[in-house]
Amino acid sequence: MRVGVLTGGGDCPGLNAVIRGAVRKGVDTHGFEFVGFRDGWKGPLENLTMPLGLEQVDDILARGGTILGSSRTNPFKLDGGVERIKDSLAASGVDALLAIGGEDTLGVATKLAELGVKAVGVPKTIDNDLSGTDFTFGFDTAVSIATEAIDRVRTTAESHHRVLVIEVMGRHAGWIALHSGMASGANVVLIPEVPFDIEDVAGLVESRFATGHAPLVVVSEGAVPREGGAMTLQSGEVDAFGHVRLGGIADRVAEELEARTGLESRSVVLGHLQRGGTPTAFDRWLATRFGLHASDAIAEGDFGKMMALRGTDIARVPLAEGTSELKLVTPEKYAEAAVFFG
Ligand code: F6P
Q1: Ligand 1 pocket, 99 CB below 6 A?
Q2: Which has more confidence, 239 or 161?
Q3: Shortest CA distance to 258 belongs to which of 181, 342, 164, 155?
Q4: Which residues are catalytic, by number?
């Protein structure tokens, strides 16, 4: 069996651990040969391959990024894209495909599987917004980085009696903001699922300041004001999956808070810091197990499936289950964080 592997979408700590787990189990136990496709779906579209075997996965467990490269190429947006992929898989002698990615990459894998491509998926995103799995790998690393950053910002904010607004990633789902905000004792957490009223936020900031502490506001990049998006800064650029590039909400919230409260308010955008560097132990563990189980699924011919964490077990769910609907923060979980607001 010859297996093609690709990583697509925004990169994520733990991608290399998945590749290593899949290759080690695939070669040692199942006698597979592997080929790497470079840069997400661009690889099979343009027949961009690289050798992938025990030698290539040596010493990559703790390395951030992806040795295969990534892109947001969408074959369904290109004329003849699907045929080109099928031809390229045949030309490379690939019998089965392992796609490691988020909503977009696995969405493509889902459609290709429906069209007869033997595909298996592993869920990846720092945003943790894929359904069907308790957690995606990369999320724990992003939360750890954000929490450490918020802890650091807290001490300087306290020294200078400032309000600090920290922007974390999360386009549609506020999981990173929710978890890092709770872990760092943030005074307000703003997430895309719950449009905010800037007057309420200003009130919480003032009440926190009155206790002699520096108010910390954690905001997801996709958070929007209740009035309807007027405060979100967007570049207007759209990628191949139709996503607008976000960024700038923290600056706007800080400006609004300073104007309403009279308190000096600064903002910090964590951005790609949350996605770079070495994965946490939890993400290495989860990503490695996803890779091992993906090789087993391929060996058993169990295609059209996505690996999923259920409790402490790795389950296999239909690819469509992971991608049909985003997993959003529930009102109940947001209410838990809100206990500590103000
Ligand atoms: O989907 C993961 C993610 O990190 C989002 O949180 C963020 O909105 C997006 O990718 C940023 O993507 P890019 O690096 O392509 O701008």
Answers
A1: no
A2: 161
A3: 164
A4: 127
Q: Is the CB of 42 under 6 A from ligand 1?
A: no
- The span from the CA of 104 to the CA of 94, in Å, is 22
Q: Which two tokens stand for residue 200?
A: 């309420």
Cα-to-centroid distance, 244 and ligand 1 (Å): 10
Q: What does the pLDDT read at residue 230? A: 43
SS3 302: coil
Map out the domains of the chain as residue ranges: 2-131+279-323, 139-275
Per-residue confidence (pLDDT) for residue 234, from 0 to 100: 55
Task: Determine the atom of ligand 1 nearest the C-alpha atom of 176.
Answer: 6
pTM across the whole model: 0.94
Task: Kindly tell me if the per-residue pLDDT of 100 is higher than 60.
Answer: yes
Specify the ligand 1 atom closest to the Cα of 275. Answer: 4
Nearest-CA residue for atom 3 of ligand 1: 10
d(CA 282, CA 276): 16
For 112-156, the pLDDT digits (tens) are 999 999 999 999 999 999 999 999 999 999 999 999 999 999 999
CATH number of 2-131+279-323: 3.40.50.450
